[in-house]
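Supplementary Methods S3. Complex input for the alpha-D-glucopyranose-bound model.
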Amino acid sequence: MKMQKMVWMGALAFGAASAQAAGVTLTMSCGASEQDAQYCKKIATEWGAKTGNTLEMLTLPQSSSDILGLFRQMFAAKSDKLDVVQIDVVWPGILKDQLLDLKPYTNGIEKNHFPAMVANNTVNGKLLAMPWLTDAGVMFYRKDLLAKYGEKPPTTWAELTATAKRVMDGERKAGNAAMQGFVFQARAYEGLTCTGLEWVASYGGGTIIDANGKTTINNPQAAKALDMAAGWIGTIAPTGVLNYAEEEARGVFQNGNAVFMRNWPYAWALVNGADSGIKGKVGVMVGMPKGDGPQSTGAAALGGWQMAVSKYTKHPKEAADLVLYMTSQAVQKERSISLASNPTIPALYQDKDILAANPFYGDLFETLKVAIPRPATVTGVKYNEVSAAFWNATHEVLSGKATGADSVKKLEAKIDGIRRGPSW
Ligand code: GLC
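Predicted complex, serialized as structure tokens:
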């Protein structure tokens, strides 16, 4: 018995030593928010300790559009200084020539994830990324303030506008001059494509481009949706919102200075964090508010992030192993409880520890099934150009530089110019 134990320990020691000798250094980019980045580092370092490899983290800019810019530069230089990359759900088509096919490494484990995400990450038969977290736009509100004014969570944008104004005015009168009705992402970047798409789709105005690649944005419902949102600027929303990404909106809301906030579920963990002034006072609406008109609906944009390996890595095997570790069920569970990061493994939406930490996950699961994808698959490598055209057009309407109708008309021509022909 004693002998056996010694042999085993010897093998372990030998294994560790050889792993050390063979260890490689990987550079990884992970985590858009500060907290997320720290957590990523912790998990990746755990993997490094287990496998005898060393991790270096690349600090990322906060906005998805800036992260894409950085990656494109590094890929254009064929840089081997980046091994594992966190990529947005709308990028597989854009980065298809820069990412490694993970199929030879996964042993089929991708089957445990949402099939739509796996399909999204598969381009020309290659699995370019493993699902890491999924996202859908959600509306947060101040439960305590709505109760104080006898208001219910709104079901339409018109109701949200009225409730936001009433509560904001009341709170300003009561002494909080900084109070705002509604904060959201309206900077000219990818986040505005998400919020803008939600407004347009909620009015039955389509998804900018349809599944066949036809530009559909030039329609009266889309124009109406953008005009409605423009009406919020300087009334229920601060003009500064025109420069807000996710974290700026969360800052205002978490400081107790907004009634409603459009954001992604990650904000749940933070607004209920120990250092939050509104801990326990926040509600999450089931679905987004509806628009107006016969096709109106509540529309949540589909978001999410994936883990991929750069084609220029010198260590494909280790990098793929790290991706599989990061996206594993155990790690996703841990992240979901600590960060309200939405798992990409359907089974985890029934996990009682996760549901206890995120009580709205049952509803979110339903929302995820009907969330609206941005037109990334159909536009492929051109997606970012199309998205930039849309977010700029939307930003112009919000800033009062164009009407909804003029803007969607110009945008149609611009998108058709990017396509340059009948197909993408
Ligand atoms: C979230 C979403 C992502 C989206 C981004 C926009 O991170 O998960 O898909 O592109 O927000 O800001």
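The longest strand covers residues 302-309. DSSP finds 18 helices and eleven strands in the chain.
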